[in-house]
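Hello,

Our lab assistant flagged a job as stuck in the queue for most of the afternoon. It eventually completed. Since we weren't sure the result was trustworthy after the delay, we are filing this so someone can double-check. Below is the sequence as submitted and the structure that was eventually returned. Let us know if re-running is recommended.
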Amino acid sequence: MQNLNEKESKVLDALSFLTDKFGFSPSLQELADKAGFKSRNTASYYLEKLKKKGFKLPSPSSVFHVPVLGSVPAGPVATMAEEREDMLTLDASLVGSLSADRGRIFALKVKGDSMLDAGIWDGDLVIVRIQPAASEGDIVVARFGDEATVKYLRRLRPTGVFPGGLYLVPANEKYSPIPMVGPSDQEGAVIVGKVVSVIRKYLR
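-- returned structure --
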């Protein structure tokens, strides 16, 4: 086998690391991200060069790997892999345009029935795209300190019970809306991301 240049070595090292991590071949985007390339085409180019040099390498996977978190991390997004409880594997065809958001997607297991009328059940997995803001009517994951909640983001008019403003609104009449802005002596809610999909396992 011929000597490798720096980029070929990066691809080979990234492929080895990700295969050990996932247990199967990574996608081209995951390979490009790990090797430090801006484009999947670059990863594909050097992968083919390695094959021509005699390396027997697996074909890129068509799956999409999503970390499953037990809680929403308070630190940078980069810490998610360290805090994950599991790794969810989805076919890339099921996530469509989300493929462009790799690294900004995670799954969170829902606890409770506050979003029952929105079709989100206790034990479901919600797929979340990390973003610091959302539009009114979106279903979001918000964080209060170390706690995370899944709710609608809605603007409510003032009533005799609630002042007006942005609220995290449940989809179950048993629960009350939660104001985004907390009392002066308490920290308010922080939007972590937008729920873009729900996955349900019927055999629990």
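-- support follow-up --
The delay was a queue issue, not a problem with the job. The result is valid. Helices lie at 6-22, 28-35, 40-52, 80-83, 92-95. The first strand starts at residue 63 and ends at 69.
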